[in-house]
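User: Hi! Is it possible to get a structure for several chains at once, not just one? Here's what I have:
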Amino acid sequence: MDFLFSYIVLAEIYVLLGLSTNLLVGIVGIFSVSQAAVFGVGAYLVAHFTMATDPLSFIPSMVIAAVCCVALNILVTLPSLRVSGDYFVVTSFGIQLLATAVFTNWTAGTGGANGLPGIPPPDLFGLPIETTPQYAWLCTGAVVLGCLGFFLIMRAPFGRLLRAIREDETAVAAAGKNVLRAKVSAAALAGAFAGTAGGLYAAFLSFIDPSSFDLDASILLLTMVVVGGARTLAGSIIGPFLLLALPQLLTLVDIPTTIAAAARQLIYGLLLIMFMLFRPQGLAGERL
Amino acid sequence: MLALQLLATGLVTGCALGVVAISFSLVYATTKIFHVAHAGIYTLGGYLAWSLVMSGIPMPVAVVISVGACAALGALIQSQLYARLERRRATHLVVLIASLGALAVIQNIIAAVYTPNILQFPLQWSSRMVSVGVVRMNYTQLLTIVISLIAYVGTMLFAHRTILGKRIRAVASNPMLADITRLQPQTVYVYVIAIASALVCLPGILVPLDLGLQPYNGVTPLLTATIAMIAGGVGSITGAFVLSVGIAVVQNLSLLVMPGEWSIGVTFFIFVIFMLFRPTGLFTAR
Amino acid sequence: MTAYLEVTGLDHRFGGLHALQECSFTIEQGRITCLVGPNGAGKTTIFNVITGFLQPDEGSVVFRGRTLDGLRPQAIVHAGIARTFQNLRLFTDLSALDNVMIGIAGQFGEEPLGAIFRPIHTARAQARRRQEAIATLEHVGLADRAHDLVRNLSYGEQKLLTVARVLATGAELLLLDEPASGLSAGALDAVMALLRRLQSEGKTLLVVEHNTRVVQQIADDVLFLHQGHLMAQGSPEQIISDPALAEIYFGGAL
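Assistant: Yes, the chains can be modeled jointly so their relative placement is included. Here is the combined structure:
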């Protein structure tokens, strides 16, 4: 039973990441392989603040982490989006590889390749969250808030603006709207979601290491959005729940552990190709 | 002297990177696709050559076969994946994601078959050391410089002197017009990617010959190569090659002042500078 | 007296192509001016320069005494100039109403913080804007198609929608790129009536048009462009009846 709750908690954390990735990739149309890097920044920041010699409690740490991730995304998208879309591809790869290098080598700050153990469990303004079912409640609350925010944005003029930008940026500029500001705002929002997800992840697992936040992880996030479906709330929820169940399904097949990780990534790659070729709208989304 | 040694190693790496950059540039300038799967072909080339050599085939033959296989794989990706997507009027983003998927598939098949551990080529001569002035290099490194320069010159001659090369440049400069005339862009794309894949197989063999094979070794060189391509000016073969050498040398020299794990930071820093101050690159496209 | 729109010495090359050569002209307020000329004369290039999509190698554009040099497209729309595109560039997956609403300036809820933290205010503001947009659609005769997706509109309706979108921006100088091309006779009349109606409401129009009948019926002035240079300027009758210009435009026949 605890196992089921664990699955739900992780899936919900990844739903937040799915919303974030969907915002960036699905709605604005920016190709990003650095989502996991932002996820990682959020996780390490919350870990740092809750484990510091003068620790902050969970919620303030989360807020700081979210704000930092917002700033990070703005910093990264502003110069590169100003130039062209393909520049952002390079920037995104660079950010992801750079982040992995920092997570792995800055041993003083991140524990290096061995990771950061002993992250304390969260508390909601004094109310401790210690058992997995309690954690599931916390995450469900976060996901509900996240989905609500996503829904409100898409219903507002901002959502319409983003959809129009994806179709034809030039026409949007000709209508008098600031395209760059809209894209950067969307990226900033995506950063907030990813940073929050990172904090929840760190506190739940109480141990984090760079392997959860590398390029392969970013590819998994993209796969979730592609399979679940782009630009919809349903897609952002279905994708993570489905793809997190995949490793469990794989254990039914006899794959030696040395190549288990490669097998998973191989399946993600195949899913990406198949869906782009035959079902670009994913299971419950709109055409990418 | 350490700095000179680092300079020399930088030259070697830079030359190999230069071939990655020009081959990627060929594809990008012509098809406008940011073909990230190129990193996978780079990786595959080395592993194929290794397998062939391990089963007793002499190295030169192994290289030729690998080059051919890479060309075939590249052509396959273009004709079966990219061309299909183009026919369905897929967006730029969709093609990018598909290319990323292809990269993941190639890399992870290699990791599954060969394990993620580093493998070495079983060739004695490759690590024989030689003194070039005050600097020491091994045969592989020398070979890398020579072959890369030949590849560069060859590509330049091909682009400017041959009919196919001119056809490619025509398509690259105006695909819509090419579509209406008899230039048949889709066919040209297949040729371009086949040639580029054949080219990238060379550093894909030479670099692991020196440093060892690893399934995920393609992404970082590709990233550095794309940065060199952009900084050199998209469409300029010379720009891509020269900037690759330049970046590699700067990266290597930075080892004098900072640990090697941060060298990607150096590359990225160079990219940011170009993006902020000279996004069109140093050389104009021709 | 400063001209309403003054274009001076525009010069621009695209690689080997000298698209604009020392191009200069002025537009007067409240009039419909047609920009004509053979293909490749530079008409769309001029539109791109005026609306900030292209920075010319040389030359300047001054609108109501204020220079537009170096301004980005969004700023030029705010200054009062908006344009349509020859290939429409409508948002096909959005409804006609949504297409118009994109053009409306200064909406609340166009950035995430307002949208999330003040949802009720956003919804109310949207409702008001929606009324404005429907009024604009009525103005061009598309009110009954407001909620249909653009991909489901006829070509003529889509053309009217492009005009509605620029109207929504509130711009006073409208640059229309071939608003009448490819239309059936009935749709053509509707467009021409719309353009005259807009003029009577105080808008100034600069229209690229190939159809001589349209030019004759709606133009107050005609600018004849050839090889990036203003070759002739005058009333529609003067330009159309000039045999030398006809030679350039049609290769002889008229």
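Chains C and B do not touch (no CB pair under 8 Å). Residues 34 and 215 of chain C are 7 Å apart (CA to CA).

User: Great, thank you!
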